[in-house]
Write a structure and sequence with these properties.
Helices cover about 45% and strands about 15% of the residues. Helix 1 (about 10-40) crosses helix 9 (about 255-260) and helix 7 packs across helix 8 (about 235-250). By secondary structure, it is of the alpha+beta class. Strands 1-7-6-5-2-3-4-8 form an 8-stranded mixed sheet, sandwiched between helices. The longest helix is centred in the first third of the chain and has 35 residues, at about 10-40. A hairpin with a 3-residue loop joins strand 5 (about 155-160) and strand 6. It has 2 domains: about 30-40 and about 50-100 and about 110-195, Endonuclease, Chain A (2-Layer Sandwich), CATH 3.30.870.10; about 200-260, Winged helix-like DNA-binding domain superfamily/Winged helix DNA-binding domain (Arc Repressor Mutant, subunit A), CATH 1.10.10.10. It is elongated.
């Protein structure tokens, strides 16, 4: 006789299987990410002679910020973006230089997103830990951008119109890619997108705050980090998680994560 899917034993087994599956997916994506970074890293300037039509290295932070701005606002149809934490070239929540005063005045730049391009954005755990991350993502959703989340670290990447890509290959170095090499960045984005989860589903009965708590919990943020992001206390986060566990009729956070994903809570 098949086991009752509602029993604690079945829920625990399903949660364990989901955890193992997610761990394997994270490892697969990490290897793909590392492979692309390693491949591009091998194409240093000393190997780039005669390849200028395919790639270009950019080392200076302000130049990288300028090129990223040009890439975003020059796109005609689509932008594919990985956003991670510890941004120096593209600080959260904007793709523009940070608050440091430039050595020389710069012309004003738009900060409202490219209205002619459709955005698909994937963010990782490090991004979600940034102080202004949630506000930045709310602004993206309000602008009609599609946003998804993964739990493994991402390289910083942007692809415009499938024709030009900017990839950070080292902490202070980025690479501009053009066809046919831009296909590498596009394929990596699509592989990650297929395995990511939506940020803040709008269907269902959960409040936006509870959805944010679940999203941050699933991404591995501590109660203290989650509370800091939401401007509340760790005890409030713990109470709300406990209420969600009661609502899902589960006994652990792992089971709550399994239930949340199975029932489109996140």
């Amino acid at each position: 006789m098949p086991s009752d899917p509602g029993t604690p034993q079945t829920q625990a087994a399903s949660a364990s299987a989901l955890h193992s599956s997610l761990t394997r997916l994270q490892e697969d994506l990490r290897r793909a990410d590392d492979s692309l970074t390693h491949l591009l890293g091998r194409w240093g300037p000393e190997h780039a002679a005669g390849q200028d039509q395919f790639m270009e290295f950019i080392d200076e932070r302000r130049v990288q910020a300028q090129r990223l701005y040009e890439l975003e606002y020059g796109a005609r149809t689509s932008l594919l973006v990985f956003q991670s934490g510890a941004n120096t070239v593209a600080p959260v929540p904007t793709t523009l230089p940070g608050d440091e005063e430039p050595a020389e005045p710069e012309p004003p730049r738009r900060k409202d997103g490219n209205p002619t391009a459709s955005y698909r954005v994937v963010v990782d755990r490090d991004f979600l830990a940034e102080p202004e991350a949630l506000r930045a993502l709310d602004e993206r959703l309000a602008a009609g951008h599609q946003v998804r989340v993964v739990d493994q670290p991402l390289i910083k990447l942007a692809v415009a119109d499938g024709e030009t890509a900017m990839v950070q290959v080292e902490s202070c170095r980025s690479m501009m890619l053009r066809p046919p090499l831009v296909a590498l960045a596009t394929e990596l984005f699509e592989a990650v997108w297929r395995r990511s989860r939506p940020y803040l589903r709008e269907d269902g009965d959960l409040s936006p705050t509870d959805r944010r708590i679940l999203q941050l919990m699933l991404s591995g943020l501590t109660d203290a980090a989650t509370a800091h992001q939401l401007g509340t206390s760790s005890r409030t986060i713990q109470r709300r998680v406990r209420a969600l566990m009661d609502l899902a009729a589960v006994d652990s956070r792992v089971q709550l994560g399994w239930y949340a994903m199975r029932n489109n809570w996140v």
